Every structure is written in structure tokens, then in C-alpha cells.
Amino acid sequence: MNTKLLPLIFDAPRRGKPPRHWFDLDPAERREAAAALGLPAFRADQISRHVFDNLSDDPTLWSDIPVAIRGDLKDQLFPHLLEHVTRRTADKGRTIKTLWKLHDGTLLESVLMRYPSRSTLCISSQAGCGMACPFCATGQGGLKRNLSQAEITIQALAANQMLAAGEVPGTTGRLNNIVFMGMGEPLANYNAVMGSIRTLLEPSPNGFGMSARGITVSTVGLVNKIQQLTDEGLPLTLAVSLHAPDDELRDEIVPINNRWKVDEVVDAAWEYARRTKRRVSIEYALMRDINDQVARAEMLCDVLKKRGDWGWVHVNLIPLNPTPGSKWTASRREDERAFVATLERRGVPVTLRDTRGSEIDGACGQLAASNTV
Length: 373
Known about the structure:
Blueprint: H1 6-9, H2 27-36, H3 42-53, H4 67-77, E1 83-90, E2 95-101, E3 107-115, E4 118-122, E5 126-128, H5 137-141, E6 143-146, H6 149-164, E7 177-180, H7 190-201, E8 215-219, H8 223-232, E9 237-241, H9 247-253, H10 262-276, E10 280-286, H11 294-305, E11 313-319, H12 333-345, E12 350-352
Protein name: Probable dual-specificity RNA methyltransferase RlmN
Family: Belongs to the radical SAM superfamily. RlmN family.
GO molecular function, one term: 4 iron, 4 sulfur cluster binding
């Protein structure tokens, strides 16, 4: 085992533990926290309705909470976790990348995208990323620290507040989809990510009431954590960033492959699909003269077909997004078309992702939390 990868497999330590927040607590813990402030149990549901139904996280504005307790409630259970630094837009305002600063000065980014029939948030689970994929700006910046459960969840609240306020053209609704494809490897911060997901799924008054089918968790292939996610029994969408069908190439471009090989990763993904009855998405960033040859398209088909018919999987091809100073670049259009045609000829369900936000460095692999415009 490559000892350099050991810190990547397990939860990384936080540089400075964030203050406790309502979003860090489950419903029972919220009742206990309310009681510790001298509030009756029913106040916990009342507080949660303000947060999850009304999208308000400022207790000083809650007229049905005793005035004498509002300040303590704000200080002890609703500390300020995210500070807006910059906001950049693309697609006529329908794609918004926000740079946030956390309590300790750590920076992170999230991207809100409005489509004709849905609103999607690309959410971050870590500040930076420790997976070190050489074609990804986030990975090349390294891992700063894990985010807390509340720091993850509050990104969803902020996005819902933006939508409700009409700050995104075409909607005043709520998030339909959340994709854990922002900064970080979600399964390397497993407990915080799953705690956040449970809050996203929990119906009112204890959560946002989202559908599990509207939440996607992406991973570069932490097999033990995929297995743990499988055991959760939640019908989330699993997206596996494969990027190469053979170990020789994947060892180079996805370093975690030195720990878990292609067959192990695909086996774990197949078992997830079998157990949850949810089709797995295989993410594949097309890189010029690296992984975009027809021979590798055929190899990808062979790797996926070994697990059964095509009902369990969908291949999502991603034109590589440019990052400053990188030698990696997108495939030629003719090579892209030939790769797609090969998969289609073999019957593989495949789509070519419509990239959003690349002009504001908000697309896949571009998030670097840089405070420059």
C-alpha cells in the first residue's frame, strides 16, 4: 500500500473545529440543546420550522421566540459559519459560483445552477482535496481541511435563500438536486457528509425534505466507503470518477488507484447498484491523447459489461475543463465523437455533459477557492 495515500483514506483532521451549529445536531440533540437554554421541548420544532420551512437562520428575527433568549440562541446554536467573499455568474445569471470564507479563514466554493426544470447545487465537502488528481485544480491545491456537517449543510441553506429571494433568473423555488461534486472527496469526510445528507432528506420540521434521488455523491473510488454507503440503504445516486478503464493509466491520473484498482472500484459500484436499485454514473473526463482513444472506449465497455447488462450503469463523458498552467486539455471533437460512437455501438448508455460555468472557473475540476477574478 502506498503510504502517501494513508491520510486520504480516512477523515482528515480539522485545522480548527467550527463552533457548534443547529445543523450539526439531529432532532433529539436539538431538543436537548433547546432544553439546555431553558426552552420547552416544543421550541425545538418551532426553531426548526424557521430554519427549514422559512429558510431563516437569524433568531433575532423570530418573533415567536422569547426576546430574552434570542441572543443566546444565536450565539450558541446559530453562529455565523459562512461569509460571502465573491460571487461570479455565467449563463445569463443562471450559473452562480460563490466563494465563501469559513470561521478560520479557510476558503471554499459552491456552484448553483438553474436549468429549465430544476435547480442544482454543486456542494463542497472539504476545503481543497487530498486525492491529487493531476488534471484537477482542486486536487492540485491540496487538502486544507474537512468541513463540518453544518458547514456542508449551510451551503444548501444559502442556495435555497438565493432561490427564494429571486436572485437566480427563472425561479423563486427551492433546490431539486444537490451533487457532492464540489471541492473535496465526499467519502473521505464520510460522517459529516452523511449527517448533512440526513438533514437534507429529513422531512419538515426537522430537515429540508429533499428526495434521496435528487442527491448525488461522487467519489474517485474509495472502495471501503462505497461499501459503507451501500449499507446505508439510501437510494442516492452514486457517481464514480473513473477516468480510465485500465490500471496502468488510472494509477497515473487517479492516484487512489494505487490503493484500489479498477476492478475493485467497479465491483463496489456494481454492488451499490444491485443493492439500492439505483443506476451508477461512471464519470469520465476526456483528455486529449491521454484517455480518449477508441481502444480505451472499447476497454471501458469490456470493464463495465463484465458485471452484467447495461441496466446498472450510465457513462457520463465530461469534456475536460481548462485549468491555469495545466498540460491537460480537452479532447479533439473528432476523438470525442469517436469515443461516444464506440460506446453507443456497444449499447452503453452514454451522455456527453453540457458543461456549465467554465468561463467563471466553476465547472468540474476548476474549483480552487481563489480570491482572484
